Fold this protein.
Amino acid sequence: MGISIEDKVALVTGANRGIGRAVVESFINHGAKKVYLAVRRPESAAELEAQYGDRVVTIRADVADKVSIEALAKQAADVDVVVNNAGIAIPNSRVLDERAEPNLVDELQVNVFGLLNVAHAFAGILEKNNGALVQLNSVASFRDFADIATYSASKAAAYSLTQALREDLSKKGVQVVSVHPGGVVTDMAEACDVTTSTPASVVGEALVDALANGDFFVYPDPGGQMIGAAYQHFADEIVMADFS
């Protein structure tokens, strides 16, 4: 089961910068008919609007706000591919820091409950349209990093839910994709002192290919590919296994 992005309608949360923006650009370059830009501040999408005109539609949305995402789904009921990219990472958030608990709460609200909100709001639409749900996870979903301990924990939880969504939605004809970058050039990576020279565009291009190929895992950059290669045996034997 694979989906060509050509002539499809897509929606990207957190579309205004970084990986989200790169995904929008790749989708349009590969022939997407329309891309909804779901952002908290509509003015932040002005450059994309100027660049792509009526091929993009900006909608204010906050993944951490269930009501906001329910309203988003009503406005984007024609969508074929939903990319839940929006996320937060609080720098220097070690597990023993005094702010570890509030930091984790904030990251869970966006990175985990945001995924739940998007999945609940769009599952029926994607089933009707034989579409795809894409979740931007991380190599931190597999391995905690002490300097971003709370972020890593939130991404592990998001990846766990992504596995469950694959099992549920694949039975309904919906492709689910889990993207695990190791480190690409974004504002978030810079804030967290992640050293990398890999442009965010590699994620967009890898995602287009994964959708077409019907892949579940996407490891778009060298860091992600290294960890993905080590993880692959477990993924094949356990994660992708049918234990029913």
Notes: The domain at 9-239 is CATH 3.40.50.720 (Rossmann fold). DSSP finds nine helices and seven strands in the chain. The mean pLDDT is 93.
